[in-house]
Specification:
α2 runs parallel beside α4. 47% of the residues lie in helices and 4% in strands. It is mostly helical.
């Protein structure tokens, strides 16, 4: 089974036909897809101007989409390396019990579904790397009241998500499943009740 880097090389290889290059980009999403496979694909197609079913997309657009995906993957891999180092140090210092961020991180190892979007047509508009930077920044500071990606205040609790965890606070503005550790208990309670939150500036 080909890894992300070898698939990326195929996407860039002008000797490969466009259908294979497109297929290889899709396969990259099996290794790294921050919004989930379908929503990440929809984001790349929308952002770079080729159709989801287009078998012969403009190769320049295809490579630009790959560049965006690779940048986001670099951001996430750097975070994971720092996370692993922190856990090693904590274990060495006798802190064996992981916290809530650690529990969330275990479900997203490798970057699949880090900012899960259950509806593949609703996802953040910003570049993937920027979304991940905002999410990582939120994980590293005190919990807040709104979406860490778009700042939206409309958090609604959703059930039967096609992801693990299968329920949680979803941002009605950008569509991500907001990681519970980045939200205050009050924000989680409001989301469970289906209420709207007013986020202070």
């Amino acid at each position: 089974m080909a890894g992300f880097r070898s698939l990326a090389r195929q996407v860039r290889d002008p000797r490969c036909d466009l259908a294979l290059r497109r297929y290889s980009l899709r396969k990259c999403l099996e290794r790294f897809a921050p919004y989930g496979h379908r929503a990440t694909w929809d984001h790349l197609c929308t952002h770079w101007g080729f159709g989801p079913e287009d078998r012969s997309p403009d190769p320049v657009r295809l490579v630009a989409a790959l560049d965006e995906l690779e940048e986001a993957r670099s951001v996430w891999l750097a975070y994971e390396a720092g996370f692993a180092e922190r856990r090693r140090k904590e274990k060495h210092d006798g802190l064996r019990r992981p916290g809530s961020v650690d529990d969330w991180h275990r479900l997203t190892w490798g970057g699949f579904g880090v900012a899960w979007c259950d509806d593949p047509r609703i996802h953040p508009r910003e570049p993937l790397a920027e979304v991940l930077r905002r999410l990582i920044a939120a994980l590293e500071r005190a919990p807040g009241a709104g979406c860490p990606v778009c700042g939206g205040a409309r958090l609604m609790w959703r059930y039967d998500l096609d992801h693990e965890p299968s329920s949680g606070p979803v941002c009605a503005d950008c569509g991500i499943l907001v990681p519970r550790p980045v939200l205050t208990p009050e924000a989680l309670a409001h989301a469970r009740r289906g209420g709207r939150l007013l986020v202070s500036a």
